[in-house]
């Protein structure tokens, strides 16, 4: 059954069928072939119950927040301000890519949206200033992955919803690893450019006065981040309420800095509808598939297979990590999460591991899947923004950063406190 399901999943994805539709087709297939009773009769109730959650309302709000920041021009000004502060490092403007991605990760909650934002703003600069296309584009793709680690994160919201884990605790747990991963990207970039200076382009410095004036473009985004994330950590607002506050704050910033137009609002709302519809189709399809898998006994089959290996907790955890790395090559990240969580998380928590810690470890592995071919979404997003060159250049440039993520996963396993220190320190 497991081999049949894997082959069916890969085959349908190879036909370029949307991921959410693939999940429904697989569920119907299991229903017809292996379920002892017709699951499709309860499809309406299942769709309603899996989508009728106040927690999931945070998703369109966070998507709209990112759309407003991008389409109002705030992203362009933020990129220019960070360029003044980090372009003196070995690698020059490449560091501005990572720094901008880090900042917008803390507001958008989506890796694809973050990568698209930075790529749209940065790519013209790379072509004009003669940067190596591989490292420059690879850094954007990797920096974009931080969108699902640094809070607020849509993927962490989905994980918390599916596992009934505290979302504020997950946000706290993801903050330090996310910032450390961003710092590691900067260090890797500097090392590569010291080794081969031609990769990094020109290192530029700016007068202190110009750098200080650039802070005016950073302070509104920092204040918005503080309002959204700070209200969650302080217990003043739920993630959904904080997301609504963030949208209101983004509208105020846009009105004060660049003005709000009907065209901008229309484009932001349409983009929000498209992205939210895609996410919810995947979540609902995965819920139906998980229901079908449970009915057919596949979840127990996979759990029995893993526990039947007779391994101690740590070796078994490493097998699960390897499973995510391999599946990440072929399956879209949100789909990989929602399909595997009901099977893997009970097994992992049964081994004595903390569900908050495992959520962060899973996110790191999911981040890696975003920049590994053939299904790494951020690779295609960045290539689309380039409008020239080969996709293989983006893939090659992302390799050092993918290895950095693997090192971060190893660090989380060796030192769980990287994820658990903040939630435990700030626990009420």
UniProtKB/TrEMBL annotation:
Keyword Cell division among record annotations: no
Main localization, broad class: membrane
Subcellular location: Cell inner membrane
The organism of origin for this protein: Jannaschia aquimarina
Protein name: TRAP transporter large permease protein
Membrane topology term: Multi-pass membrane protein
InterPro entries reported for this sequence: DctM (IPR010656), TRAP_DctM (IPR004681)
UniProt keyword terms in alphabetical order: Cell inner membrane, Cell membrane, Membrane, Transmembrane, Transmembrane helix, Transport
Chain's gene name: siaT_1
GO molecular-function terms, A-Z: transmembrane transporter activity
Transmembrane segments: 12-34, 46-70, 135-158, 170-195, 215-236, 242-265, 277-299, 305-327, 334-353, 359-382, 394-422
Record-stated family: Belongs to the TRAP transporter large permease family.
GO cellular component: plasma membrane
Residue ranges of every copy of the TRAP C4-dicarboxylate transport system permease DctM subunit domain listed in the record: 9-417
Function of the protein: Part of the tripartite ATP-independent periplasmic (TRAP) transport system.
SUBUNIT field: The complex comprises the extracytoplasmic solute receptor protein and the two transmembrane proteins.
